[in-house]
DNA sequence: TGCTTTGAATTGACAGGATCAATTATCTGA
DNA sequence: TCAGATAATTGATCCTGTCAATTCAAAGCA
């Protein structure tokens, strides 16, 4: 019944190759070749290390060097040797560069806004774009340890609570649940991992310890737009590895049968079901894993 | 609660610009620059008119000329003047060119397939890619008059019936409905329009006439991946214009209150609700519009 | 400490892609 | 029939991206 999947992927590829060309030339709107504009943008977005930018943009080192030189001649950036390693160089915007970067930002934002404004269901469109972007850049998803009160972490937690509220028959009220103390999810007692995809938080997991040999896995969540990429497994593996580093011998977790994909994940990755070990009103299924 | 929409659009843009670069170089896998490969592909996909290809790929005419020359030197294509207009040229594949094109096709298909295979929810991903592709190329959506029994038309109709079955409480059985005779939706009695987006049918509408001054609008459908682009309005306007060409004075249609977006569209575009005018078991709301 | 190896950035050389302007051939409409 | 418009080609030129050679600095090792 559905159209050939391969044809649909290729249609997508054609759409982006032809539209991204147009997107590129719009960067030329300020009279600067695309390469230079991309470098300027990376620096403006906070990258300072030349090698990191080169790597991120996939540029040849010779070309990178020339692009930096031309931006320098325009007075937009200045480069200086990295104090830690004098072979490397770091770049930063000058005052002029900062305002030029702001001009690009304004253009890009306006373009993005007008793209959304032309659509009468922007939420649907954004959801779709998130799915595609996460999938295209799945190799670039990085797991970062963050404070559970960090903005990215609390974004994930809010999304997680929202999803529980939708999926549990009786809803979900975090104040009735055994909300873990943030300190228990920070080293050395535990950890909190956030999966970041190009600046967007798309998943998280908490390792809640008490200094002893038993710890709990909490708050495993993957954004709907990032499901199917194996991210939950990756988060769990990373959390287990941190637990081993912290000399934890036994991990436990609770979950709810209204989240069958989670239960299935645990069963498939070496967890075994155990009896209830707390009086939290929400979970109905309990697991442990010996490390 | 949701992340800044503009940031999400820009994240998408970064994802495709960086991945499309990789996609480009993969085209180089056969030792031919991207431009030449794209031209070869367009010709292989059935485009013959050089100016049309140039326009579609957004190439400079000088560059296009050189690319054609190099493909000709490789023995992959031959060009000859357009018999209708000797200023223009048409291009077609030679036997060698055809097999080279097939090699590209095989590579592209394999790449698309492996992209999907890396995802454990390919249907979700495809749906998202369809939404994005339709939105990016909304300007390129064309409405074509087709026989209702044409493959693209019947694909739309099957999807349409499937959607009715899902949305009507009692389901939908086309054999119980007043299925219009295909001949009534072909000129000179009527017409059937299919909205095509780069080869994929994404919407349709039927104009069912009987040779007189009254006709009916039937089978208005827009693919879920193309909603929000104003396509339904565009299809309706086109159908009305064809009706005027056919000297039709009054249009009628029936619909169901389970499809509120349709009812809303009709109310907003000059249709007025009337009494039931047929005994079809499915519709419960009826409209007419004087042309 | 001196030596070798490795890594980062720069520079020159060069192939190829992209753009502009001029030219030729052809078509269209007055 | 002729002026103006359009399509393709060609030459000139600039820019981009790549390769290889060079310089300078860091890291590892005897």
Q: Mind sketching the topology for me?
A:
The structure is a homodimer of 291-residue chains.
Chain A lengths: L4 H23 L6 H11 L5 H8 L3 H13 L3 E6 L2 E9 L1 H23 L4 H15 L5 E4 L5 H17 L23 E7 L2 E10 L4 E9 L8 H15 L4 E6 L4 H9 L3 E3 L10 E6 L1
Parallel strand pairs in A: 6-7
Antiparallel strand pairs in A: 1-2, 3-4, 4-5, 5-6, 7-9, 8-9
Chain A binds a DNA duplex (30 and 30 nucleotides) through helix 3, helix 4 and strand 2.
Can you characterise this structure?
Chain A is about 45% helix and about 20% strand. The first copy, chain A, is of the alpha+beta class and about 290 residues long. In chain A, helix 2 crosses helix 4. In chain A, the strands form 2 sheets. A 7-stranded mixed sheet of chain A has the order 3-4-5-6-7-9-8, with helices on both faces. In chain A, strands 1-2 form a two-stranded antiparallel ribbon. Chain A has 9 helices and 9 strands. The model of chain A has no long low-confidence stretch (mean pLDDT about 90). Chain A binds a DNA duplex (30 and 30 nucleotides) through helix 3, helix 4 and strand 2.
Question: How would you concisely characterize the structure shown here?
Answer:
Two copies of one chain form a homodimer. Helices cover 46% and strands 21% of the residues of chain A.
């Amino acid at each position: 019944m559905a159209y050939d999947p391969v044809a649909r992927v290729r249609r997508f590829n054609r759409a982006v190759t032809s539209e991204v060309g147009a997107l590129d030339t719009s960067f030329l709107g300020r009279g600067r070749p695309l390469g230079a504009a991309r470098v300027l943008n990376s620096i403006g977005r906070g990258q300072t290390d030349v090698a990191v930018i080169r790597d991120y943009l996939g540029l040849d080192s010779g070309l990178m060097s020339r692009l930096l030189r031309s931006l320098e001649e325009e007075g937009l950036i200045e480069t200086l040797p990295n104090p830690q390693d004098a072979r490397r160089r770091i770049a930063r915007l000058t005052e002029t560069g900062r305002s030029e970067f702001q001009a690009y930002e304004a253009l890009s934002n306006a373009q993005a806004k007008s793209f959304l404004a032309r659509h009468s269901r922007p939420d649907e469109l954004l959801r779709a774009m998130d799915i595609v972007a996460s999938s295209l850049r799945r190799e670039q998803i990085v797991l970062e340890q963050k404070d559970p009160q960090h903005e990215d972490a609390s974004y994930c937690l809010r999304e997680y609570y929202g999803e529980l509220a939708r999926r549990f028959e009786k809803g979900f009220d975090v104040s009735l649940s055994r909300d873990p103390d943030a300190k228990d999810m920070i080293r050395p007692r535990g950890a909190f991992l956030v999966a970041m995809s190009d600046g967007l938080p798309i998943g998280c997991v908490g390792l809640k310890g008490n200094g002893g040999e038993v710890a709990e896995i909490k708050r495993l969540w993957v954004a709907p737009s990032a499901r199917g990429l194996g991210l939950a497994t990756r988060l769990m593996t990373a959390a287990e590895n941190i637990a081993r580093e912290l000399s934890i011998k036994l991990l436990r977790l609770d979950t709810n049968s209204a989240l069958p994909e989670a239960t299935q994940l645990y069963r498939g990755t070496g967890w075994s079901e155990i009896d209830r070990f707390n009086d939290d009103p929400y979970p109905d299924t309990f697991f442990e894993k010996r490390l």
